[in-house]
C-alpha cells in the first residue's frame, strides 16, 4: 500500500495513511510489520530533502511508542528527539499529547515515576486546549464537555467577572465591525448583567 501511495505521487497522503496501515498490522498482532511501515514512511519523508512534511513528527512519535513496547528504549528516545526537533511545523494537531504520552512510557520503563506523572499531566493539558484553525493565537477546548464541566465549577461571582472581562475585550476587538459578532457580545453581556441587551443598543 505504501508503494502505491508513492507511485501515485501523493506523499502527504502516504504519510498520514501510515497510521491506518500500522494500526491494522497491530490489530493483527504484527508488531514488527507496523514498525516497518513507519520506517518506510519516514524514509519516504527523508527523501524529500529539507522539506518538512506535516505529520512526520507524529511518525517518529508513534515509532518511538512501538520500540518502547519492544524494549528498545534507546531507539525510542532517539525517535522522540527527532519528533521534538520537527515540532509543530511537522506535526498533526494532537502531536504534543501523543509525544508526552510516549515520553511518559519511556520514563515509566526507566522507573522515573515523578517525571512520568508530570508528563501525563502535560498530556492532559495538551488535549484540553487546541489551536483554532485559521486563527493564530486563539485556543479552544478539545471537547465541549470539558468546557462545560470547567464552567459549571465556577462560582456565580467568578462567572460574572469572566463574562464582563470577555465582553469588554471582544467589544474592543470588534469595534470596527461589530455586526457579525452581535450575538456573541449579547451573550457575554447578558451573563455579566443578567439583562439581555438589544442588538441596537450593542451597535
Q: What does this protein look like?
A:
The chain has 203 residues and is mainly α. Helix content is 69%, strand content 3%. The chain has eleven helices and two strands, in the order H-H-H-H-H-H-H-E-E-H-H-H-H. It has helices at 2-7, 11-27, 31-46, 56-69, 73-86, 95-109, 113-128, 144-152, 156-173, 182-193, 199-202, and strands at residues 129-131, 139-141. The chain has a two-stranded antiparallel sheet with strand order 1-2. The chain is elongated and about 65 Å long. The relative contact order is 0.06. The model is unreliable at 5-9 (pLDDT under 50).
What's the short story on this structure?
The protein is an all-alpha fold.
The chain-level structural class is mainly alpha
User: Got a strand count?
Assistant: 2
CA-CA gap between termini: 57 Å
Question: Helical segment tally?
Answer: 11
Major β-sheet annotation:
2 strands, antiparallel
Query: Which regions contain 5 or more consecutive residues with pLDDT less than 50?
Result: 5-9
Q: Given the C-alpha coordinates, what overall shape results?
A: elongated
Task: Please indicate the percent range of residues in DSSP E strands (runs of 2 or more).
Answer: under 5%
Helix content: 55-70%
Q: What is the H/E order?
A: HHHHHHHEEHHHH
Strand order of the largest sheet: 1-2
Q: What gyration radius follows from the Cα positions, in whole Å?
A: 23 Å
* Overall mean pLDDT: 80
Features:
203 residues; mainly alpha; two-stranded antiparallel ribbon; 11 helices; elongated
Give the topology.
Blueprint: H1 2-7, H2 11-27, H3 31-46, H4 56-69, H5 73-86, H6 95-109, H7 113-128, E1 129-131, E2 139-141, H8 144-152, H9 156-173, H10 182-193, H11 199-202
Helix pairs in contact: 2-3, 3-4, 4-5, 4-6, 5-6, 6-7, 9-10
Amino acid at each position: 500500500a505504501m508503494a502505491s501511495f508513492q507511485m501515485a505521487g501523493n506523499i502527504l497522503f502516504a504519510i498520514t495513511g501510515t497510521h491506518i496501515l500500522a494500526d491494522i498490522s497491530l490489530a493483527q498482532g504484527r508488531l514488527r510489520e507496523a514498525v516497518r511501515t513507519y520506517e518506510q514512511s519516514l524514509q519516504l519523508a527523508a527523501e524529500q530533502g529539507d522539506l518538512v512534511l506535516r505529520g512526520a513528527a507524529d511518525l517518529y512519535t508513534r515509532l518511538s511508542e512501538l520500540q518502547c513496547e519492544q524494549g528498545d528504549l534507546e531507539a525510542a528516545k532517539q525517535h522522540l528527539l527527532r519528533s521534538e526537533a520537527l515540532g509543530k511545523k511537522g506535526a498533526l494537531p494532537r502531536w504534543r499529547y501523543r509525544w508526552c504520552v510516549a515520553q511518559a512510557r519511556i520514563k515509566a520503563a526507566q522507573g522515573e515515576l515523578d517525571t512520568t506523572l508530570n508528563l501525563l499531566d502535560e498530556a492532559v493539558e495538551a488535549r484540553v486546549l487546541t489551536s483554532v484553525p485559521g486563527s493564530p493565537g486563539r485556543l479552544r477546548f478539545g471537547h465541549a464537555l470539558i468546557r462545560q464541566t470547567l464552567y459549571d465549577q465556577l462560582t456565580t461571582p467568578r462567572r460574572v467577572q469572566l463574562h464582563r472581562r470577555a465582553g469588554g475585550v471582544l467589544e474592543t476587538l470588534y469595534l470596527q465591525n461589530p455586526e457579525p459578532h452581535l450575538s456573541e457580545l449579547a451573550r457575554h453581556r447578558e451573563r455579566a448583567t443578567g439583562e439581555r441587551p438589544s442588538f441596537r443598543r450593542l451597535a
